[in-house]
Amino acid sequence: MSNDTGVAIGVDIGGTGIKGATVDVGTGELTSDRIKIATPEGARPDDVIAAVAELVRKLPNAGDEHTPIGVAFPAVVKHGVTMTAANVSDDWIGLEAEKLFEKALGRDISFLNDADAAGLAEYMYGAAKDVAGVTLVTTLGTGIGTAIICDGVLVPNVELGHLEIDGHDAETRASNAAREREDLSWKKWAKRLQKYYRACEKYLSPDLIVVGGGVSKHYEEFLPLLDLDARIVPAKLRNNAGILGAACRAAGLHGTAGERVG
Ligand code: BGC
């Protein structure tokens, strides 16, 4: 789907907040204010879908049916169905979520995993722009999201945030939410990140690791403490990556594995 204005709407649903904006997909710039609302308590489907519809209505271009809409969601998404639910209600598991969003928004949408959206955006406009080889984009937020992009092709739904490390689901120890919950110093958190990224390297041998999520604005506090084989850099798009990637996918600018674009 595409439109003449090069503008698309991106919505990024997270365990804690839902963000949306109108985006110039040519430049990767937001063309509206970013609207952020809290994820409804319990993150149940009906509540989240209603909240997204309300948010989208407030954005410029929302009334124009030719403006593509992309929605990024924190779960494995296969053929429009949400397959997992790590930081949202279990009611999402097996739900035809894309169809439900389309019904509420009154038009077709593009629907994808939130970390995949962030990965696409970092590849199109950010810290992984045009990088060759294997890039691992991670988002450190409520959970840990991961995306793998190999020579510009996204491999969707890679869930390395759930690697088992020392008997724990990695994101429960190394996400930014874990840092906040346990009031960890940067040094203590970096130790956990070191273990986490080492495990990722063991299985994937990436050429570049991009560290995203809102906390990446504090990268100077923890990235220098990490010792890895791959180059590791902060994300450029931080909290906007999910919005930008969702908009970009909606505008048809970037595919997934098998559809090499960009
Ligand atoms: C989910 C992923 C998601 C990540 C970041 C994880 O708990 O399993 O699908 O990308 O959180 O939101």
Describe the structure.
InterPro entries: ATPase_NBD (IPR043129), ROK (IPR000600). This is Polyphosphate glucokinase. Keywords: Kinase, Transferase. This protein has helices at residues 45-57, 97-105, 114-125, 170-174, 176-181, 186-204, 219-222, 241-250, and strands at residues 7-13, 17-24, 29-30, 35-38, 69-73, 77-78, 81-82, 110-113, 134-140, 144-150, 153-155, 164-165, 168-169, 208-212, 231-234. It is of the alpha/beta class and 262 residues long. The protein has 2 domains: 7-117, Nucleotidyltransferase, domain 5 (2-Layer Sandwich); 129-236, 2-Layer Sandwich (Nucleotidyltransferase, domain 5). Strands 1, 2, 3, 4, 5 and 8 form a 6-stranded mixed beta sheet that branches. Strands 11-10-9-14-15 form a 5-stranded mixed beta sheet. α1 (45-57) runs parallel beside α2 and α3 (114-125) crosses α8 (241-250). Mean pLDDT is 94; it is low at 258-262. Bound molecules: beta-D-glucopyranose (BGC). Beta-D-glucopyranose (BGC) is lined by residues 74-76, 84, 86-87, 113-115, 139, 141, 143, 145, 159, 161, 171.
